[in-house]
Amino acid sequence: MTSKPAIHVVGLTKSYADHQVLKGVDLTVPAGSVYALLGSNGAGKTTAVRILATLLKADGGTAAVDGHDVATEPDAVRRSISLTGQFAAVDEVLTGRENLVLVAELRRVPDPGALADELLARFDLTEAAGRRAATYSGGMRRRLDIAMSLVGDASVLFLDEPTTGLDPQSRIEVWDTVRQLAGRGTTVLLTTQYLDEAEQLADRIAVLHEGRIIADGTLAELKQLLPPAEVEYVVKQPSLEDVFLAIVGKTSSDSPNPTLATKDA
Ligand SMILES: Nc1ncnc2c1ncn2[C@@H]1O[C@H](COP(=O)(O)OP(=O)(O)OP(=O)(O)O)[C@@H](O)[C@H]1O
Ligand SMILES: [Mg+2]
């Protein structure tokens, strides 16, 4: 591992027609860390991930992944990364095992069948391995999709809302997998709508809002942005959700305190 950041983004801009989605995004993701990118629907998380994964061109700014510029060295970037997109890349005509073997063959893994079987077992899909993916539940499809992105040992993994639609048990399995990968030195950039997911997994958290990163840091650093909230006679530390809602300027409707959303204890 190097001390060079795995992802380094400066002043990234992107518009769709006259709608400017990214207005100058700056982001530095240390190698080997798990980094969570939070933002409301439409904030531009998927847009940013697609630019970093070389699927979309930025209008301005620079972005480097694993030391390679996404605009000028896209092939080198693609060799370093793996992406699980927000919408599953699973081929529904193939069985779960066939999907994995296909990706393993494309990535020139020495023994595609053995790796497929190992990943099927790890994601609790062994029993369903021989069934067409079209017959899988949403959660099974998601697990297969993530398993496919783990083929080939990428050094930087992008997970765009990896646990949306998963049941609690499957979410925990995905979290464990992310932790294992991080333990082996893989850098993980994940987007999520689940603030507890960011609290659980991320070494650092960034909030994308109105085209810019408006806050980033460790959970402890973000919590310092707000004073502890007083709820009746108990002093309560703000949760990440409180911090998030306060900095993006929203309050939950049932909050007794208009400046701070607090969850029930
Ligand atoms: N291909 C496109 N053409 C036009 N507008 C687009 C396109 N892709 C995204 N947008 C718009 O850009 C904005 C950001 O979209 P993006 O998908 O990056 O957001 P997101 O943060 O990933 O949202 P979500 O949480 O819903 O996944 C949205 O307003 C969206 O409608
Ligand atoms: Mg998205």
TrEMBL record:
Residues 7-235 form the ABC transporter domain. GO terms for cellular component: plasma membrane. Its main location: membrane. One of its GO terms (molecular function) is ATP hydrolysis activity. One of its GO terms (biological process) is response to antibiotic. Keywords: Antibiotic resistance, ATP-binding, Nucleotide-binding, Transport. Belongs to the ABC transporter superfamily. This is ABC-2 type transport system ATP-binding protein.
